[in-house]
Design a protein that fits this description.
Chain A is an alpha/beta fold. Chain A has 14 helices and nine strands. The longest helix of chain A is centred in the N-terminal third of the chain and has 20 residues. Chain B is of the alpha/beta class. Chain B is globular. Classes of the chains: A alpha/beta (324), B alpha/beta (303). The structure holds zinc ion.
Chain lengths: 324, 303
C-alpha cells in the first residue's frame, strides 16, 4: 500500500491531499523546531476520515467509475495475498499460453481450500503492459475455465474477482475465438457443481467481466461498476462523441447501488471509508469475512439445487411488456 | 480491393447503417414510406437492385426468387426473419410464438433520443415488435423451432425481449421434444438496456444448458453480421455452429480492433471462411442449400 506521502489523488480527493500535506508540514515542523503538534495532527487525521466519508457520500456515477480505476486501488493479487494462505498459483490454458491478465490458483481461505481466479491489472507501467491492462485474451478465459473444472473435480468452491475494462479486442484474440471462449465459460459456470461466488472488485465491463461472472452469488464492492459497455465506448457509440462519458455513466446505471436495486447482483460489499485504496488490509478483511459467510451458506445446499437455482436466478433477469 | 471497414455502431444506436437489410426496404415500399421519387413510382417487383459486391444489376423480384443471393457472385444479401421463415419452413407454413412480448423502457434511458421514442419509431417503421422472432414449423417434415433475428430492429441487438423469447423457445422445444435453430444477425447487446442486456448472455446460456440436458439439438446459424454479446453467448454454443458464406462474425467489431492494434485488418478477417479456417465453424452453407442440409442433419440425429 502506498504511504501517505506517495499516494495519488483524484480531482475530487483534492481536499484530502491538502489535509495530508498539512500533517506532513506539521510533522516536519515538530522535528525541526521541536514543537509538539500531536494534538493538531490528531485533529487533522480525524478530519481526513471525515473528508473521506463526505467525499464518497454523494459521488456521481462517473466518479464511482473513477474510484474503481483509482491508481492506488488493490487488484486481484493483492486481495489473494491479504485474504488467503498458501496460494498455489497455477498457470496456462494447456493450449496456447499463460495469459498474464488472468490469474488463479488454489488457496486457503479461512482454513478451507478454494479456487480463486481473477483478472489482474499491473501496478506500474511495465506491469500494466505485461498484464495487458486486465484485458484477457481467449487463453485467459480458457485458463480460468480449466481452473474451475479442476476445482470442481476436487469439490472446491470457486471464487472469481472481476476487474477488467473488457476482453481484449485484438486480431489474435479473434483468431483464437474470443467470443467462443467467453461463451463457453458462461455456459460451463452455469453448470459448475461447486459453489461459485463472483465479486466485482474494480471494473466490470461487458462480456469480458461476464466471462468469469456467473455465480450462485454475484457481489459488487462499493466503488465499482458493472454493465454492458464502458461509459467511454457507450458515449462514442450512442452520443457519437467521446465527451459524454459522464452522462453515459449516469444513463447506464452502472453503480453497485443501482445494480442491487435492479436485482442483478446479490449484495454490495462495503469498502474502507473513502474507498479500498485507503486500506488494503481493511478492504481484504471485509471481503474475506463476507466470502467465508456466504460459502458456509452455499455449502448447505445440494449441488443440483445450487445449479438449478443459478439458472433460475439469471433466467428471471430482464424487463418487457406483453401486448396483444 | 480493400473493403471499407464495416461499422455496426450506427445500427446499434438505432440508426440506419451503410447497408440496411433487404427486408427493410421491401417492407417500407409496402408501407409507402420510401421517400425518394425514383423509388416511389416503382413497385418492389419492378425495382432494379445493384449488388454491393460485384455491381451486378437485376430486378428485385429476380433477386427474391434467388433467395436474395446475387446470381452473379453469390453475395448473400442481408434478409430478415420473414424471408428465413418463408425459405426454410415447408410450404412457408409456420406458427409464430411469443409474439406478444415487446421491449419496455424500464430504465428511462436517454441518449440522443429517449429509448422509448426509439422503440416507438422502430415499431412504426418496421412492424416488428423486437429484434427476434420465434416460429415453430417443419423443415422437410422435421418439426423444429427457429428463432431468427431482424437486423433492422436496432441492429438486431440483444436485449431483455430477445433473452426472454429465447428462453421460452427453449422451454417450448423441451416440452415438444423439438430441435432448436437460432439464426443470428446482430451488432451485439442493446446498450439502452444496460446491464439487463448483459445478463441475457447468462440467461440464454443457462437455458441452453437445460436444452442440452434434454438431449435436444441446438444449431447456431450465423449470418452477416454477428458480433459482441451474441458471439460471446449462444451464437458460439451450437452443437453445430454454421454460417452463411462471407458473413462477418466476431466478438469485437472491426473498427474497434483496428483502433486498438493501429493496423489495417487482413483481407477476409472475421469472415465465415476465416472462422472455419480457425476451427470455430462446423461448415459454411449457401442459403439455397440450407434447407436440404438442415434436413440431412436432423435425419442423422434421429436415425
Ligand atoms: Zn454480386
Amino acid at each position: 500500500m502506498p504511504t501517505d506521502a506517495n499516494r495519488q489523488f483524484l480531482d475530487f480527493e483534492k481536499p484530502i491531499k491538502d489535509l495530508i500535506d498539512e500533517i506532513e508540514h506539521l510533522k516536519k515542523s515538530s522535528e525541526t523546531k521541536k514543537i509538539d503538534h500531536s494534538t493538531g495532527i490528531r485533529q487533522l487525521e480525524e478530519l481526513i476520515i471525515e473528508k473521506r466519508k463526505e467525499i464518497t457520500l454523494n459521488l456521481s456515477s462517473w466518479q464511482r467509475v473513477q474510484l474503481s480505476r483509482h491508481p492506488d486501488r488493490p487488484y486481484t493479487m493483492k486481495y489473494i495475498e491479504k485474504m488467503t494462505d498458501s496460494f498455489l498459483e497455477l498457470y496456462g490454458d494447456r493450449n496456447v499460453k499463460d495469459d498474464k491478465a488472468m490469474v488463479g490458483g488454489f488457496a486457503q481461505l479461512g482454513g478451507e481450500t478454494v479456487m480463486i481466479i481473477g483478472q489482474q491489472k499491473g501496478i506500474n507501467t511495465k506491469m500494466r503492459q505485461m498484464r495487458n491492462f486486465g484485458m484477457a485474451n481467449p487463453e485467459g478465459y480458457r485458463k480460468a475455465l480449466r481452473l474451475m473444472k479442476l476445482a470442481e473435480k476436487f469439490n472446491k468452491p470457486v471464487i472469481t474477482l472481476i476487474d477488467t475494462p473488457g476482453a481484449f479486442p485484438g486480431l489474435e484474440a479473434e483468431e483464437r475465438g474470443q467470443g467462443e471462449a467467453i461463451a463457453r465459460n458462461i455456459y460451463e459456470m452455469m453448470r459448475l457443481k461447486v459453489p461459485v461466488i463472483c465479486v466485482v472488485i474494480g471494473e466490470g465491463a461487458s462480456g469480458g467481466a461476464m466471462g468469469i461472472g456467473v455465480g450462485d452469488r454475484v457481489f459488487m464492492m462499493e466503488n465499482t461498476w458493472y454493465t454492458v459497455i464502458s461509459p467511454e465506448s457507450c458515449s462514442s457509440i450512442l452520443w457519437r462523441s467521446w465527451e459524454k462519458k459522464e452522462v453515459a455513466a449516469e444513463q447506464l446505471r452502472l453503480t453497485a447501488e443501482k445494480m442491487l436495486g435492479f436485482g442483478l447482483i446479490d449484495g454490495i460489499i462495503p469498502e474502507p471509508v473513502g474507498g479500498a485504496h485507503w486500506s488494503y488490509d481493511e478492504a481484504a478483511t471485509i471481503l474475506k469475512d463476507y466470502l467465508i459467510d456466504v460459502l458456509k451458506e452455499l455449502k448447505q445446499e445440494p449441488a443440483e439445487q445450487r445449479v438449478s437455482k443459478r439458472i433460475e436466478k439469471f433466467g428471471k433477469m430482464g424487463f418487457w411488456e406483453e401486448v396483444n | 480491393m480493400a473493403k471499407q471497414v464495416e461499422d455496426f455502431d450506427a445500427n446499434l444506436a438505432g440508426e440506419e447503417g451503410k447497408e440496411s437489410t433487404k427486408t427493410g426496404w421491401f417492407r417500407r415500399i409496402r408501407k409507402g414510406i420510401l421517400t425518394s421519387t425514383h423509388e416511389k413510382k416503382e413497385t418492389p417487383e419492378g425495382l432494379w437492385t445493384k449488388c454491393p459486391q460485384c455491381n451486378h444489376i437485376c430486378t428485385a423480384s429476380d433477386l427474391r426468387d434467388n433467395l436474395f443471393v446475387c446470381p452473379n457472385c453469390n453475395y448473400h444479401h442481408r434478409i430478415g426473419s420473414e424471408e428465413y421463415f418463408n425459405t426454410l419452413f415447408d410450404n412457408s407454413e409456420y406458427t409464430e410464438l411469443f409474439d406478444n412480448i415487446r421491449s419496455k423502457d424500464f430504465l428511462e434511458f436517454t441518449d440522443l433520443k429517449p429509448y422509448k421514442k426509439r422503440l416507438e419509431e422502430t415499431w412504426s417503421k418496421t412492424d416488428l415488435k423486437d429484434s427476434m422472432r420465434v416460429a415453430a414449423g417443419k423443415i422437410k417434415d422435421h418439426g423444429v423451432v427457429i428463432a431468427c433475428m431482424d437486423f433492422e430492429f436496432i441492429g438486431g441487438s440483444l436485449g431483455s425481449v430477445m433473452g426472454e423469447k429465447f428462453s421460452r423457445a427453449v422451454d417450448y422445444c423441451i416440452e415438444h421434444r423439438l430441435p432448436f435453430i437460432v439464426i443470428s444477425k446482430s451488432g451485439g447487446a442493446r446498450m439502452m438496456e444496460s446491464a439487463f442486456s448483459l445478463m441475457q448472455l447468462a440467461k440464454t446460456s443457462g437455458k441452453l444448458s437445460q436444452l442440452s440436458d434434454a438431449g435436444l439439438p441446438y444449431i447456431s446459424l450465423l449470418t452477416d453480421p454477428t458480433f459482441g454479446g451474441i458471439s460471446a453467448s449462444f451464437g458460439m454454443l451450437g452443437d453445430l455452429n454454421i454460417a452463411e458464406p462471407g458473413a462477418l462474425i466476431g466478438f469485437a467489431g472491426p473498427r474497434v480492433i483496428k483502433e486498438t492494434i493501429k493496423k489495417d485488418l487482413p483481407e477476409g478477417f472475421q469472415r465465415s471462411e476465416f472462422l472455419l479456417e480457425h476451427g470455430f465453424l462446423d461448415f459454411i452453407i449457401d442459403r439455397k442449400e440450407m434447407k436440404d442440409k438442415l434436413a440431412t442433419v436432423f435425419t442423422m440425429f434421429e436415425n
